[in-house]
Write a structure and sequence with these properties.
This protein is mainly alpha-helical. It is 69% helix and 3% strand. The protein is built from nine helices and three strands. A three-stranded antiparallel beta sheet has the order 1-3-2. The longest helix has 39 residues.
Length: 229
């Protein structure tokens, strides 16, 4: 499968990399992010790094101390719930507009047919994320609402189950759920499409919350054992 994307700005690349590291726990809560160290890590100038950190501050992942470093706040149950609550509201609006406008579905159907023709065992995290991002991006374009498209593209850089556990079963279900949403849109049944998409988002929410909590429990247990050693 071939998926093409526009070049991502440097500040967004920085935000994406740091966000993923924070959500995975590779960068811990309370850790200081210093611009000089990040310059050496990313091999780019300070301006896009600071802009990327400011994006993360807006999302609630870091806090900037006046004239000092950025402090990592980290991911939380509240963040996960807020993320999916927003996704449901704005994707519902996009789906309703897509059904109302009866837009051409050829691009998104071609993408869906391509992923369905690919063996699930050959998929990688990056390939699936490309497919999922492209699927939702094409869906939002059908809304014809540039504000919705822009907001959802920004919001989509959120947490994923693949960050914490083997994702193959989740990917299989996601592909099937995407197809069901598309079928409902093709039928012009916006209520059904929204219902199916909401169910998909709720499944992803529940799965991610469980995976994240399990990871937190493992890390807490490891800290206890380390303290007793």
């Amino acid at each position: 499968m071939t998926v093409t994307f526009e070049t991502v700005p440097l500040n967004q690349q920085v935000a994406n990399e740091l966000r993923t590291a924070i959500m995975r726990g590779d960068i811990k809560d309370g850790q200081r992010l210093q611009l000089a160290e990040l310059e050496a890590t990313f091999h780019i100038s300070r301006t896009p790094i600071k802009e990327g950190l400011m994006m993360l501050e807006h999302e609630g992942f870091v806090q900037h101390e006046r004239n000092k470093d950025f402090i990592v706040i980290g991911m939380s149950e509240e963040y996960i719930n807020d993320y999916y609550d927003l996704r449901k509201v704005f994707e519902a609006a996009a789906i309703k507009n897509a059904c109302k406008h009866k837009e051409d579905l050829s691009a998104i159907l071609s993408l869906q047919n391509s992923i369905e023709g690919t063996s699930i065992k050959t998929l990688t995290v990056d390939l699936f994320k490309d497919y999922s991002a492209k699927f939702h991006s094409e869906l939002w374009k059908l809304s014809g609402n540039t504000r919705i498209i822009g907001f959802l593209n920004f919001l989509f850089e959120g947490p994923g189950v693949e960050m914490f556990e083997n994702p193959f079963k989740h990917w299989e279900k996601t592909i099937k759920e995407h197809r069901a949403v598309l079928d409902a849109i093709q039928q012009g049944n916006s209520a059904k499409a929204v219902e199916l998409n909401n169910a998909h988002q709720e499944r992803c929410r529940s799965r991610l919350l469980k995976a994240w909590k399990d990871k937190q429990a493992r890390e807490n247990q490891e800290e206890v054992m380390h303290g007793q050693a």
